[in-house]
Design brief:
The chain has 214 residues and is mostly helical. Helix content is 68%, strand content 8%. A hairpin with a 2-residue loop joins strand 1 and strand 2. Helix 5 runs antiparallel to helix 6 and helix 6 packs across helix 7.
């Protein structure tokens, strides 16, 4: 499968859901859609710009559009305890990224004993962790965005010799969107189960209401 195909397919589905009023399923409900789409357009325009950094023998390629999106998502976090929220999400991203990168390293050494697929297992595990850290789609996307970058760095540092890490490549985005889709599916299933349980518990109380005497 060509790199970027999964990203295009998932982003197209998310765009259709958001524009047709089903943004709650995506978990990325936005109030100012014009500004959001403008920011995404700027990130997409800057995406071809790539810079390479060196940490020892590790070469890290970063794409300008991805770095700008990371900054935007971090600055967009709002709430009464903004810095606490950002710190919590960054810690969650670091933990998910360490596990994600470790899974990739494990499969690079011995790709035999995989769960679903050597390419899918890492993003799926990261998506499960993101759904456990938060049920909000905005938080999950932010966690996975930074976790994907942390996973690249962890995987690079665990390698021997020269290794090239890419933060923002098409394959990197494929993994990120798989992780986000996993997180959203798990959150929606949990929400559906919780709603069903609440309704099931409420049925006996409704039946005990009785009727007024005539």
């Amino acid at each position: 499968m060509n790199a970027g195909y999964i990203s295009i397919w998932i982003m197209l589905m998310a765009f259709i859901l958001i524009t047709t009023g089903w943004s709650n399923l995506v978990g990325l409900s936005v109030k100012n859609r014009k500004w959001v789409f403008l920011a995404l357009a700027v990130c997409a325009a800057l995406q071809p710009i790539k810079e390479t950094f060196h940490i020892g023998q590790v070469q890290i390629h970063v794409f300008a559009g991805t770095i700008l999106l990371m900054l935007i998502t971090l600055l967009a976090m709002r709430g009464p305890l903004v810095w606490d929220s950002r710190g919590y999400l960054l810690i969650c991203a670091l933990l998910a990224g360490m596990i994600w990168g470790s899974v990739r390293k494990m499969y690079s050494v011995d790709p035999v004993f995989f769960w679903l697929d050597p390419f899918l297992d890492g993003p799926v595990v990261a998506g499960v962790l993101a759904s456990a850290f938060s049920t909000k789609g905005q938080h999950q996307f932010t966690v996975l965005l930074f976790a994907g970058a942390a996973a690249e760095l962890v995987h690079a540092l665990l390698q021997r010799g020269v290794y090239e890490a890419s933060i923002g490549s098409l394959q990197w985005w494929d993994s990120l969107w798989i992780a986000f889709a996993t997180a959203r599916v798990i959150s929606l299933l949990f929400q559906a189960v919780r709603t069903g349980v609440v309704r099931f518990i409420a049925i006996p109380w409704r039946n005990k209401g009785g009727s007024s005497p005539k």
